[in-house]
Design goal:
The protein contains ten helices and 19 strands. By secondary structure, it is of the alpha/beta class. It has a domain of 270 residues: Rossmann fold (3-Layer(aba) Sandwich). It has a nine-stranded mixed sheet with strand order 8-9-7-11-13-14-15-19-18, sandwiched between helices. Strands 1, 2, 3, 4, 5, 10 and 12 form a seven-stranded antiparallel sheet that branches. The longest helix has 17 residues.
Length: 471
């Protein structure tokens, strides 16, 4: 997996609404010939190449000089195409790399019609039943986190509506630098001890974690006692060699540690799809999910954790197909809702087959950063979570009042919906360990009526883990 700044592998539309791989377009194989004819008409024979993906179901065109404009050209003649979206780890906190454009569709006018009646932009992904909610008011409006229409029907605001972003965002001068390169400080901080909590066995439950991989250097000793495949990975604290912790380094290790604390004994399949800067491409993620779906029955995961996401007004059909394939064989996918205080649907969390997870604070209140909306099915604590991290990394951050913010000794404290999702996975694993199917576990813990809920955040999972459970 590539590491370091992402400027060569990530591109954004003006205003930042879409993040995608430069020069790439995706089409279903059934319309590939028509797409190629149109692209050759526009750009000529020499600039465009293609390859088959996902068993030939999709075609990836490469060398497309202006893929978003080309997408519009193809759709104008009835050929469905989409970019190869880039998704980002949901480690707290804002801004999401494309946050300046979420809730806006003026950068490319044809994108605006994905929320209207243009038949060429109709997407099965956008037909999510969770979006058809009668509730039009955001639970965050009273605290000022709401705002103008975000396009999802829940009445909440886009990212700019949240007042806390004024302090969390970099300065206007710095924001383009972050978006262009991915450079920013990690928000993980050292911790001294894990938290007390009741663990229940997850022995024999198979869990796939698609993320930054697992620590291969500065490795916490606790990993050696876990059922990991592979046993070690390529996640490094400082992949770009600048002597600072990479923005999302350790993300996968942290997530594994959360599940192991709550449901020890699970069998983990670790799949590296994100860089230490937190970016991963839709095609790579979809191919990894597809391999899980076709694994022999006794080797398929029961549960899959996806602590990343991104926004798209046209949906992510390639990713949606892969998730649907998992759902068809009984695998439950759990995904983080995102950390941008918006109700704009984030993918993959907003896909109808996915258990989408928002974050609560320690007192059971909605975390200030969490995404929300009728598409969020569950919530649990995502704030100040302590878990495994690199052991022995001490970067260039200078101590302040005797506290060294990047001297890690095997544990860290981190916040975000990234870390709420694995807590839900652990709760489901406990039920699966007792012989309940993954789908039935979702019914029992999330979809059954009369469970404690938060408006626009779904069912509260693991309420006993909150300091002050609130019904």
């Amino acid at each position: 997996m590539e590491s370091g700044p992402w400027q060569r592998r990530v591109e954004f539309t003006p205003g930042g609404y879409l993040a995608f791989r430069p020069g790439e377009l995706l089409v279903r194989s059934s319309v590939a010939e028509a797409a190629q004819t149109r692209l050759v008409d526009i750009y000529g024979d020499d600039s465009i190449d293609y390859e088959e993906l996902l068993g030939g179901a999709w075609i990836k065109f490469t060398g497309v000089p202006q893929p978003i404009e080309a997408l519009g050209e193809l759709r104008s003649v009835g050929v469905f195409a989409q970019p190869n979206h880039v998704l980002f780890a949901a480690g707290c906190c804002p801004p999401h790399p494309s946050q300046s454009g979420v809730g806006r569709v003026d950068a490319y006018p044809f994108l605006a019609s994905s929320f209207s009646a243009n038949p060429f932009l109709a997407s099965s992904v956008l037909a999510n039943p969770f979006l058809a909610s009668p509730f039009l008011a955001s639970p965050f409006l009273a605290s000022g986190l709401g705002g103008g229409c975000c396009g999802c029907g829940c009445g909440g605001g886009g990212l700019a509506a949240a007042p806390f972003l004024a302090s969390a965002n970099p300065s206007p001068a710095a924001a383009p630098w972050f978006q262009a390169t991915g450079r920013r400080r990690s928000t993980a901080v050292p911790a001294d001890a894990t938290e007390d909590g009741e663990a229940e066995s997850g022995d024999g439950v198979r869990i796939a974690i698609l993320d930054t991989g697992i620590a291969g250097v500065d490795r916490p000793a606790a990993l050696d006692n876990m059922n990991l495949k592979p046993a070690a990975g390529g996640d490094r604290p400082d992949g770009d060699g600048d002597n600072y912790l990479d923005p999302v380094a350790g993300h996968g290790t942290f997530i594994v540690g959360i599940i192991e604390q709550l449901a020890p004994g699970c069998d983990f399949e670790i799949v590296e799809v994100l860089s230490g800067y937190g970016d991963g491409e839709e095609v790579v993620i979809a191919e990894a999910l597809s391999r899980l779906a076709v694994a022999p029955e006794g080797q398929r995961p029961h549960l899959v954790n996806l602590s990343f996401g991104s926004y798209s007004p046209i949906g992510m059909e390639v990713l949606a197909d892969a998730v649907a394939a998992l759902h068809a064989v009984g695998i439950v996918v759990v995904a983080s809702a995102g950390n941008d205080a918006t109700c704009v649907p984030a993918y993959p969390a907003a896909l109808p087959e996915v258990v989408s997870v928002g974050a609560l604070d320690r007192d059971g209140r909605p975390a200030a950063y969490t995404n929300y909306g009728p598409w969020v099915r569950a919530c649990t604590r995502g704030t100040d979570v302590v878990s495994l991290f690199f052991d022995g990394f001490n970067g260039a951050e200078l101590p302040v009042d005797g506290v060294d913010a990047d001297d890690f000794r095997g544990l860290a404290r981190w916040s975000g919906t990234s870390f709420a999702a694995p807590r839900v996975v652990a709760a489901l694993a406990r039920r699966v360990h007792k012989g309940v199917s993954p789908r039935a576990a979702v019914d029992e813990l999330i979809d059954t009526k009369h469970l404690p809920r938060r408006r626009m955040l779904g069912t509260v999972v693991l309420p006993e883990e909150l300091d002050e459970p609130r019904g």
